[in-house]
Specification:
single chain; alpha/beta; Rossmann fold; 7-stranded mixed beta sheet; two-stranded antiparallel ribbon; about 35% helix
């Protein structure tokens, strides 16, 4: 090869931007959140501040605004072509990523920003935790130690829920989950034809599973109009998970009703050892084998650095 010729870069469907370049794309998107909002929205261990909202989430909010209007226009054109009466269909956003990476905070921030648009005042947020099989069912199936893995979810119920919302049903019931009792709750929450539905969970970008007869289960991501994957190096997420475990030991775990109350009395050293063991047995294998492989199916990838702040953004352009 000539010394002046460089090998061509591998083709990619993404354009990659550093945080500075991405933040400039905010343009005139108004800032609608205050410090008191962040205190309510940020998750345990997250270091989200208003600067991060301005530089990362406001540009994303502006982009989502374009997507919502463009998708609505496309649906109107399709309805006209088919001779149907046009109607506004809920815009669905998926948010994926590892335990402790901050995907729940990302989902809550997006909900808050999008609900303040005049065009989409009704924004609902549902987590897939509510569609886990109950602890009793997981134990019956021998899956209690694989909670969070794809097979631990009632995939059929989750697919039916999103399909019902997407089809425009006026009322759809979503299951709920308690992180205190570490189990699904008996009741449901009512979703009433939202303008936007945000679906947050570990495996929301999972591809369809193939059944023994050759058919497939379908994928909930088929119903997404936009998807976000919150990314970070595995070693960093492990450290965040352990830090969060230590904080939970002093807060949620201290509640006698907590499923994890037995960890409240652990010393710092014992807590770190316990958290590292849980991470190594359950969360890291799930991340490496099931969650990370879905990253390239996302519309947008937010990559975090050591300090939990987003440093790079990849946007699918094809």
């Amino acid at each position: 090869m000539s010394p002046t010729r460089r090998p061509k870069a591998a083709p990619t469907p993404y354009v990659e931007l550093d945080r500075a370049a991405w933040s400039r794309l905010r343009e005139n998107q108004p800032m609608s959140l205050e410090h008191k909002d962040l205190a309510r929205l940020r998750g345990l261990g997250d270091r989200l501040d208003l600067r991060e909202v301005e530089e990362v989430y406001l540009p994303l909010s502006r982009l989502l605004h374009y997507y919502v209007e463009a998708v609505h226009g496309l649906r109107l054109a399709t309805s006209e072509f088919l001779g149907e009466r046009p109607s506004r269909v809920p815009f669905v956003v998926g948010v994926a990523g590892s335990v402790a990476v901050g995907k729940s905070t990302t989902a809550r921030i997006l909900k808050e920003l999008m609900s303040r648009w005049p065009q989409t005042p009704r924004v609902s947020l549902v987590t897939t935790d509510g569609f886990l099989h109950s602890n009793a069912e997981l134990e019956r199936r021998g899956l209690l130690q694989r909670k969070g893995f794809p097979e631990s979810y009632d995939r059929r119920a989750l697919l039916r829920f999103i399909a019902d919302v997407k089809s425009g049903l006026p009322v759809v019931e979503a299951r709920q989950y308690s992180h205190l009792t570490y189990d699904v709750l008996p009741g449901t929450v009512t979703i009433r034809k939202p303008d936007v539905l945000i679906v947050e969970g570990l495996n929301v970008l999972q591809p369809p599973a193939v059944r023994p007869d050759g058919s497939n289960t379908g994928a909930i991501s088929d119903y997404f109009d936009f998807s976000v994957y919150v990314d970070a190096p595995v070693d960093e997420i492990r450290a965040w998970y352990v830090e969060r475990f230590l904080r939970l030991r002093e807060t949620a775990f201290a509640d006698p009703q907590s499923y994890f109350h037995r960890y409240a009395a652990l010393s710092d050293e014992e807590a770190r050892e316990t958290a590292t063991g849980i991470w190594s047995r359950i969360n890291e294998p799930n991340l490496v084998h099931n969650i990370v492989p879905t990253r390239d199916r996302a519309t947008l990838v937010l990559t975090k650095g050591e300090d939990h702040a987003v440093t790079r953004i990849r946007l699918r352009k094809i």
